[in-house]
Amino acid sequence: MPYALITGASAGLGRVLAAGLAGRGWQLVLDARTEARLATAAAGLPAGSLVRAVAGDVADPDHRAELGRTVAGLPGLDLLVNNASTLGETPLPPLAEASLTRLRQVYEVNVIAPLALTQLLLGPLRRAGGTVLNVSSDAAVADYPGWGGYGSAKAALDQLTRTLAAEQPGLRCYSVDPGDMRTELHQAAYPGEDIGDRPEPESVVPALLRLLDSAPPSGRYRAVDLDPGAPAPARAEVASEVAR
Question: pLDDT tens-digit profile of 67-79?
Answer without folding.
Answer: 999 999 999 999 9
